[in-house]
Amino acid sequence: MRKFAVLLAFAASCANENLKETEGARRAFEEWAKAASAGDAEKTLAGFSDANKSQWLYIRLNENDPRTRQWRGQLTGGPRTALDLWWGQALKHGNGRDEPLHSMVLDHPSFLQLFREFFVLEARAIQTGLSRAEVTNTYGDDSGVTVLVKSGLGKPIEYYQMVYEGNGWKIDLYKPPQLGGK
Fold this sequence. Notes:
The protein has 182 residues and is of the alpha+beta class. 59% of the residues lie in helices and 17% in strands. The protein is built from seven helices and four strands.
């Protein structure tokens, strides 16, 4: 009987930890969505995991975007070397997530400026979508916390995968709604 009581106490403490985790991720998402819908590019980027930032840059480079090409051409020294080494590996893997960018690139002021340029282009769509975002559910799993979000009545659910990185919860992956039941 005593072992059963210990197991129940342990299960309850795990449930409390999971609840704290999901609530923390939920608050982080809501703060991030508020900053993004207010047009704060710096807080929006800071709310991304390093893997998400790396994937974002991988997509821009892979699209051969002129702004990103110019940014890469102007990057020098250690950050440029780290970027080129990462880019070679990212091309081999077919994504920018498997081996995230080095912090000397992610923390470089020009990286934020590049993100800001793209953010400004999409600001209206971001504001429209995220200003109405409502968290409908959160659940934790082995990889972090999934946040389910609706951006208005009758809108499909969007999935945001959150991970705890550095000093808080970060958006690691966004999965757009699958329309047509697919």
